[in-house]
Amino acid sequence: MPNPTAAMLVIGNEILSGRTRDSNLHFLAGELTRHGIDLREARVVSDSAAAIVQAINELRSRYDSVFTSGGIGPTHDDITADCVAEAFGVPVDVRDDARALLEAHYARTGSEINEARLRMARIPDGATLIDNPVSIAPGFTIGNVHVMAGVPTVFEAMVASVLPTLTGGAPLLSQSLRIMRGEGQIAGPLRDLAAEFPDLQMGSYPFQKDGAFGANVVIRGEDGARIDAAMTRLAGLFPE
Amino acid sequence: MPNPTAAMLVIGNEILSGRTRDSNLHFLAGELTRHGIDLREARVVSDSAAAIVQAINELRSRYDSVFTSGGIGPTHDDITADCVAEAFGVPVDVRDDARALLEAHYARTGSEINEARLRMARIPDGATLIDNPVSIAPGFTIGNVHVMAGVPTVFEAMVASVLPTLTGGAPLLSQSLRIMRGEGQIAGPLRDLAAEFPDLQMGSYPFQKDGAFGANVVIRGEDGARIDAAMTRLAGLFPE
């Protein structure tokens, strides 16, 4: 059975303006690979309602699950919950269970809940909450879409809350070999080797270091013994 | 006149498996912002022909220009040129001017062109070449799509070759203020300030450091004097 598929949607002007460098994609990609879920696509869109709604609807229809990051805080540019509700065609309002979590949190820290903070309790109808052990304000899951915060520590904690609820497939295994030759010399033999092992994926990722060209060749698949066999052949083709 | 819009398409399994962390998006985002081009969306897709063709066609119809990175090397998993040709419905083959660049390069370095290296001279009909001063194998522009390499040094050099050919708008200016309070305290006053300055964008980017909550508030716009005025008001609202 093929592995389940997934997409990620990163929401936020700050990535597209070059102000901030996203790190949540790289984190999620590694976690999903370990969990046997194929991350097939990622998108970054700005804080624009039309763009967010369109991306959510395209991605949730194309993939088994969708993970979003960003736009669920208390400020006026945090519009993700409203956009997700619009994409699903359901109402969104402050929900009692989410409000109770926030009230208890602010009571403990000696501050008060206000209108802005209450925005973080706006949850689309029919969603279930995602636990946020870091800063309490919850994420939520509706249909096949998991809506999470953009702050990396919070995003990572929410991913840890969601992943055990998802059914994964066989984890994708990989091995890599660093070959200090130009890709032009590697490409022919690698193509022939890939044809011999059609059950494995072989990728070549070139780099340049201190003026020399090299490539990391990565072999991926679900069967460790087959990867071992292909890797032995590869190493034999390119002795150091 | 509104600024021209753009999208980026990152092509490569290695980003989606979590093996590699993309850095080209962050670089391009900064360059486009300085050039007055609004980067509205970015996507990452795997080395799958169907996914690449669909993404190119969706993005080139939605935005003024599209920048791709990855998949134009000599190995069997480098399929970007063929996918771009398919998206545009034009033939693709080894082209004499691109072949001549490669032959001269390999003659200089004392190695020979081979079948794999010749793949890098496959250029869709009607495209113009993008200069690659780092490793010679060219990128290309077809219609509103700029096709570039994934290796960061090469990608960055190609962006430098392409940008002067594009008409930009007014550069987006920005200033930011670091406020050591939770976003829940910042949100209300910031929303009111944003309503007073409808010509500016105000965004709040929360962080957590050493257990304390804070946010960087960023004000963006095209008129530096207006940004100064709003920033002065913002600083007055949140004295240290």
List keywords for this structure.
homodimer; 240 residues; alpha/beta; Molybdenum Cofactor Biosythetic Enzyme, Chain A; Alpha-Beta Plaits; 2 domains; six-stranded mixed beta sheet; three-stranded antiparallel beta sheet; 9 helices; 11 strands; Molybdenum cofactor synthesis domain-containing protein (chains A, B); MoaB/Mog_dom (chains A, B); CinA (chains A, B); MoaB/Mog-like_dom_sf (chains A, B)
Structural description of this entry:
2 copies of one chain form a homodimer. Chain A is an alpha/beta fold. Chain A has 2 domains: 5-165, 3-Layer(aba) Sandwich (Molybdenum Cofactor Biosythetic Enzyme, Chain A), CATH 3.40.980; 173-237, 2-Layer Sandwich (Alpha-Beta Plaits), CATH 3.30.70.600. Chain A has 9 helices and 11 strands. Chain A has helices at 13-16, 24-35, 49-62, 80-88, 96-108, 115-118, 152-162, 183-196, 224-237, and strands at 5-11, 38-45, 65-69, 92-94, 122-124, 128-130, 139-142, 145-148, 173-179, 201-209, 212-221. In chain A, the strands form 3 sheets. Chain A has a 6-stranded mixed beta sheet with strand order 2-1-3-8-7-6, with helices on both faces. In chain A, strands 9-11-10 form a 3-stranded antiparallel beta sheet. In chain A, strand 7 and strand 8 (145-148) form a beta hairpin. In chain A, helix 2 packs parallel to helix 7 and helix 3 (49-62) crosses helix 4 (80-88). Chain A is elongated and about 65 Å long. The relative contact order of chain A is 0.13. Chains A and B meet through helix 1, helix 2, strand 2, helix 6 and helix 8 of A and helix 1, helix 2, strand 2, helix 6 and helix 8 of B. Strand 2 of chain A pairs antiparallel with strand 2 (38-45) of chain B, so a sheet runs across the interface.
